[in-house]
Structure formats: structure tokens, C-alpha cells
Inverse folding.
């Protein structure tokens, strides 16, 4: 599904911002934008608010793990952030292609899932 992150010129150059339902973070980098899952590879904390250094490094706001931009590769070799395709339209709008949210579970499905996890002792 396509999600708008607003206009490229309106994205801050110095920090990452969450978009849509908050599960995606967008970063301005190298005259365009890149988008990642809004979870750090360290402890799964949100990357939103992380500082962007010269458009080439994103620093997690929690314990300062650093990621290369636009690849999302951890600079210490701990992996790569899951990323999403970005399109900047002719009029400067940033569109992100993000996965559809999972379908909502009915109350019956939630109760069954809870009962199954309880039976397993988790
Ligand atoms: S959660 Fe990002 S560095 Fe620890």
C-alpha cells in the first residue's frame, strides 16, 4: 500500500520521522528519502527521532547504533534494516510502498489465540 510522507522539502534533514501508523520511519538522504521499518536492530526500539548526520548516517536515539544511508546497513556489521521502496513524484511528494497491515482479528480469533498461547504456557 502507498503511504505519503509529505513533501521532500518538508522532511527534516537532521532527524528521522515516523509516518503512517508509526511502523515506518523516513529519512531524508542525498537529495531523496529512504524508508525503514521503525525498529532498531539492537533492542527493537523506534528509530524515529534518531539523528541524521550529513545525510549519510542514521543514529538510533536509544543507544546510538549507527546505520549507513541509504542502505540501512549497521555500521558495526550487525545486519541491515528492512527497507521500503520510495518514490518522489514530479511535484516533490514522497510516496512509500509499505506492507499492508495484517487483517484485524475478530474477538473469537483473539480469544482462541490467547487460549492457545496459554495452553503452551507462553
Ligand atoms: S535500541 Fe537502537 S541502539 Fe539500542
Amino acid at each position: 500500500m502507498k503511504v505519503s510522507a509529505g513533501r521532500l522539502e518538508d522532511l527534516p534533514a537532521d532527524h528521522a520521522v515516523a509516518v503512517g501508523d508509526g511502523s515506518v520511519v523516513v529519512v531524508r538522504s542525498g537529495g531523496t528519502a529512504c524508508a525503514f521499518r521503525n525498529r532498531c536492530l539492537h533492542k527493537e526500539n523506534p528509530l524515529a527521532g534518531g539523528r541524521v548526520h550529513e545525510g549519510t548516517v542514521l543514529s538510533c536515539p536509544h543507544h546510538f547504533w549507527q546505520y549507513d544511508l541509504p542502505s540501512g546497513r549497521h555500521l558495526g556489521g550487525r545486519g541491515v534494516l528492512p527497507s521500503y521502496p520510495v518514490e518522489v513524484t514530479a511535484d516533490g511528494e514522497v510516496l512509500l510502498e509499505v506492507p499492508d497491515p495484517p487483517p484485524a482479528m475478530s474477538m473469537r480469533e483473539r480469544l482462541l489465540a490467547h487460549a492457545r498461547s496459554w495452553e503452551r504456557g507462553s
Summary: The helical segments are 107-119. The chain has one domain: 2-119.
